[in-house]
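hey so i finally got around to running the thing on that chain from the lab meeting. sorry it took forever, my laptop kept dying and i had to restart like 3 times. anyway pasting the input first so we r on the same page abt which one it is
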Amino acid sequence: MKYINLLKSKWGIKSNQQLIIIFIVFGITGTLSMIITDPILDFFNINKEFFSTYIFGDVIFWIIRLTVIFPIYQVLLIANGFIFNQFDFFWEFEKEFLSKIGFKRFIKKK
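ok and heres what got predicted. didnt touch it at all, straight out
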């Protein structure tokens, strides 16, 4: 219970119900981003077999896969947050996350 309260205070969440919804959104978004990435890579004919002849082919494939998953996940997180009526939380979460990884100059301050 201590960690739940710590997480709620860090994220500014009032209820356990909102916390559960946020965890559900994170879970759905992660799953959907993995599911959606496969058809996108298949469309561009990017698969493990294509890279099997190259040195470190598996590593190259996974770097490309993660590069494709990253923006898909970000968009889906906002969309799912909107669907579950948690848009404000996930919008602030995204702005904070993106500013930490170097996109700070693109994010407007309040």
